[in-house]
Amino acid sequence: MIIGVSKAFSGIAPRRYKRGVEALMNYAGVDEDVDVWLGKRILAVLLLGVIGVFIPHLLLLAGVTLFDYSQPNAEFYYSAMSGLALLLLTCVVLYFHLYYVIDERRKRVEAILPDFLLLIAANLRAGMTPIAAFIESSRPEFGPLEDEIRVVASRSLGTESFMSIFGRLSERIDSRVLKRVVGLFTTGMVSGGHLARLLETSALDIRETQELRQELESSTRMYIIFVLFVVLIGVPLLLSISIQFLVKLTALKSQISNISFGEFGYTFMMVQSTLEPAFVENMTYMILIGTTFFVSILIGVINEGKLMYGLRYFIPLAVIGVVDFIVFRGVVQGILVALA
């Protein structure tokens, strides 16, 4: 029944979108039928969207007023916006989950790829055929690569040529390095050159590239630590001090409206400010969330050269930044009360 319902909901998506999702599923190592997999996600997204519609009404019944209901049709408007926001958020979370699964598979495969190539080269020098050397080089610790090698080995027993089956290996793992290795391996098999030497050279080049990347990450780690210190400690502390200063200034302004200096006739007028502490505090949360968003993108670019890779750090950094601000605000307020 669940499979039938899932396939029915998958009909909502166009064919071109399904082909894109199927390619992502292959890269993620998901062997489930694309209609069933996609239908389950669409059903979950729609259900959460419906739940989001009732959130403002449930909050209102619980006595929690987060919105202004004085305007006509305000409850309908906020319900629609809440449902749409939760629906879009669910779509984003599902996509990012699939993206990070694909990226983790790529990183695991690229980490062990030099060892795999050296094993193939050693088997070739031992007198094995390229097909046998490729299959016998599989190890359980290779993880996703070992699973895909097992699939290639089972398909090679059929009528399909090994070249076409081996070429599909790059369609299951989204790695440019693996695609180049597959191209070199198939070209070497066709040309009949020194395949073992070619694989050894490729393995050494990949390992040198990985070492250079690790050195680059080590050299930029201090910059990341400094940026995180500024965002998670410096910015919340300065903003908390600014808000407490504004609170004191507002209290002083409410108590003193006109100070006369007696016989000199001088008058000191308090400067009228349109900034309210509540407004500045709300803006502070927006500043912290926006700053941590861009910092997470920066971390992803520095570490992996990808914008989306750093977005996994956005929610933890935003939560830490907001919590630090609340803590610093209480500490600064306590210090000012103690000094008063």
Automatic annotation (TrEMBL):
<feature type="transmembrane region" description="Helical">
    <location>
        <begin position="76"/>
        <end position="98"/>
    </location>
</feature>
<protein>
    <submittedName>
        <fullName>Type II secretion system (T2SS), protein F</fullName>
    </submittedName>
</protein>
<feature type="domain" description="Type II secretion system protein GspF">
    <location>
        <begin position="116"/>
        <end position="241"/>
    </location>
</feature>
<keyword id="KW-1003">Cell membrane</keyword>
<keyword id="KW-1133">Transmembrane helix</keyword>
<feature type="transmembrane region" description="Helical">
    <location>
        <begin position="42"/>
        <end position="64"/>
    </location>
</feature>
<feature type="transmembrane region" description="Helical">
    <location>
        <begin position="283"/>
        <end position="302"/>
    </location>
</feature>
<dbReference type="InterPro" id="IPR018076">
    <property type="entry name" value="T2SS_GspF_dom"/>
</dbReference>
<keyword id="KW-0812">Transmembrane</keyword>
<keyword id="KW-0472">Membrane</keyword>
<dbReference type="InterPro" id="IPR056569">
    <property type="entry name" value="ArlJ-like"/>
</dbReference>
<dbReference type="Pfam" id="PF00482">
    <property type="entry name" value="T2SSF"/>
</dbReference>
<feature type="transmembrane region" description="Helical">
    <location>
        <begin position="314"/>
        <end position="339"/>
    </location>
</feature>
<dbReference type="GO" id="GO:0005886">
    <property type="term" value="C:plasma membrane"/>
</dbReference>
<feature type="transmembrane region" description="Helical">
    <location>
        <begin position="223"/>
        <end position="247"/>
    </location>
</feature>
